Fold this sequence. Notes:
The protein is mainly α and about 90 residues long. The protein has one domain (about 15-85). About 75% of the residues lie in helices and about 0% in strands. It contains two helices and no strands.
Amino acid sequence: MSVEINEKTEITIPIKTLISIVGCLLVASWYVFTTQNKIADLEHTVKLQDERFISYTKQPGREHLEVQLIKRDLEYLRKEIELFKGKK
């Protein structure tokens, strides 16, 4: 025996259950919305911090390797100057 469902089919739901379902949907949607906003804010903050760190490391003298390269160049130039002065 099958039951036919159409526009005239009546369904009864207690008002407490209906209110509970609507309340749960509202709370769940609020939770998802606030969680997505927090994630977006954190991603934005991380992106800004990454950009600040990159700009900080690009400043002269911030990277250890740059300082070493400058020291090597200075030593090389000093030796070249001494050799040049010795040839005269």
